[in-house]
Amino acid sequence: MADKADREVKDAGLDETTKNLSPERIEAVIRQVLDTRASARLKVYLETCVHCGLCSDACHHYLSRDKDPDFAPVAKVKDTIWEMVKRKGKVDGEFIKNAARIAFIECGACRRCSMYCPFGIDIAQLIMLVRRICSLLGVVPQYLQDTTNSHAATMNQMWVQQDEWIDTLMWQEEEASMEVPKARIPLDKEGADCMYSVIAPEPKILAQLIGNMAVIFKAAGEDWTMPSTDGWDNSNMAMYSGDFEVMGRVERLHWERAMQLRVKKIVMGECGHAFRGAVYDGPKWLGWQGTPIPMVHAVEYYYDIIKSGRIKIREKYKEPVTVQDPCNIVRGRGLHHKLRYIMNEMCEDFRDVEPRFEHNFCCGAGGGIINCGPPWKLARMKSTRVKAEQFARTGAHTIVTPCHNCHSGIEDIIKHYKLGMHISFISEILVQTMELPGDKA
Amino acid sequence: MFEFVRGPLVWIAFIVFVGGVLYRLVSTAILAGKEKTVFPTMDLKYGLRSLMHWIVPFANRNTRMRPIFTVVSFAFHICLLATPMFLMGHAVLWKESWGVSWWSLPPATADVMTLVVVFGCVFFVLRRLTSPEVRNVTTWKDYALVLLVVSPFITGYAAHQQWLDARAMLILHIICGALWLVAIPFTRLSHMIWFAFSRAYMGSEFGAVRNARDW
Ligand code: SF4
Ligand code: SF4
To answer: Which site among A167, B51, B65, B213 is 20 to 30 Å from A146 CA-CA?
Structure first.
């Protein structure tokens, strides 16, 4: 039965905001969302679901919490949207608070369960509808809402200011040029082949990743650029908080910046949700047929430059390594084989996970869960036991995570479950193992 | 009484069934058209690819993970659909009413298949009662549905075996069968209709859009 400790977590974003909700307002918002969004699919899904529970074993929350029935995918739908539909929106603030906890904390919209439900019912989409309703009611975990506010005000996720952004790029250009002479970070170079975009936590706390990329681009002989102004951030937490208006603004600006720079494609850093936002959810919301120019995820990019020989591996990484298949680029893009190719090229002792590929478990951090912040960390850890066990079985020392959410989430898992492993982005291993321009080969 | 259930009632049931299915399909298609992304996402190749992996037992990971359930469920669904269509007693009726005749099942086989359906229903009910994750999402309607589904099979079997009053049993059987048909478009039994579409949609999204597999 649903975890008591989780229910008692204090989060002003849920506790305070639900206090003053009037029943009329709740009803109006629920009806508006149910009537205007996803109505055909919602109807078919709700009616088709035969309450068989076959989706349960797909969910890492359910499995990690000793098969607690309340964490089965179908149960999360039952306790949220079923009730809202059944009661025609006549639910109270307490109900909304509970639904918000389920939708924001207990489901990461990883879509694994759609591969286990015989009907392919899109539980994640139903949960996103719940988030949308909560967001319109102003009921969103406080930390997550803060990132959305940041997007709205600064067009990036972490309140990074314009001068900080440029400063960071210049600093990283210097770092990169110490590795490789003449490595540069070209700003606003119109007509370059590609624009490189990152998520805001990179300039804020992981700036070395930008430096790494400058080294890799230099080695690969890439004609690239980065924007000096807003639109450089490809992350999008508004997509997960349910504020689709802000989500749309963020994605539009990101693409517009690329079009202004007249690049042929965007290459993006190692992040999963950013790919989802830029390629699927953003364009969909904006009513676009697809993306205006191609979006190339870092995994695809590394694959291309290794495969084509534009960069060469000098000496393979020795330690035993395993990998995380990020939901949004594996179930969301099918990049798992390319990821394996990179791993095997780069590492001597690659140990695969099981289950893997599309069947891999979510890290538990994605879908905005980790962004709900410290109040929910323990709940998140309780839902990732299967993930920890999966990694422990590989016997690897290093876990490669080509996604920021996975990276932070798995770092927490390693500490919580005392796995004694460490994590790394691909780029961090790549710059150690590849031939650098000027290397005496 | 017998004449009525045997004649008009069955006709009404068929008309409501066909009409109901068409109505549901058309009204849902119109609704889906308003959601700008549903039809453009649908992709024949990937839709079929996904369907194939879900109508063949053990062609997807979930059915491999639970072999007993898979065998029971597939046997149940096949018998559930095939028995009424190919039963010899029904074949006569098809021929009388519509002048169509097709291959029919040997009676002994049909008996076994009927029992498979009944056994399947018992299995599903027991599973609902004993698996916490299933019981948690079960309502009385789910049990009622099982009862509705199994009723024409039990009554049909009883009539065939000449248990109790065979004629009364036959009337009951026809009524249950009529209810069964009518319920398909308007209850959760519609998963029979929607299965192909919801699976194909997910298959298209995974395959055509996201370049991934969904089984
Ligand atoms: S976390 Fe993933 S598997 Fe679990 S209910 Fe949500 S989408 Fe399904
Ligand atoms: S979502 Fe699918 S697998 Fe889960 S209970 Fe409903 S029909 Fe069964």
So the answer is: A167
Q: Which CATH class is domain B2-209?
A: mainly alpha
In chain A, what residues touch B50 (CB-CB under 8 Å)?
120
Note down pLDDT in tens along chain B; length 215 residues.
777 877 889 889 999 999 999 999 999 999 998 887 888 889 999 999 999 999 999 999 999 999 999 999 999 999 999 999 999 888 888 888 888 888 889 989 999 999 999 999 999 999 999 999 999 999 999 999 999 999 999 999 998 888 888 888 999 999 999 999 999 999 999 999 999 999 999 999 999 889 999 99
Ligand 1 atom closest to A124 (CA): 7
Q: Is B143 within 8 Å of chain A by CB?
A: no
Start and end residues for every CATH 1.10.1060 domain found in chain A:
4-140
What's the CATH fold of domain A312-433? Rossmann fold (3.40.50)
Q: Domain A4-140, what architecture?
A: Orthogonal Bundle (1.10)
Cβ within 8 Å, pair A70-B136: yes
Asked if residues A39 and A28 have their Cβ atoms less than 8 Å apart, the reply is no
Helix axes B107-130, B67-86, angle to 10 degrees: 140
Query: What are the start-end ranges of the H helices in A116-243?
Result: 123-136, 142-154, 162-179, 201-205, 208-220, 238-241
The answer to whether B202 contacts chain A (CB < 8 Å) is yes
Coil/strand/helix, residue A389: helix
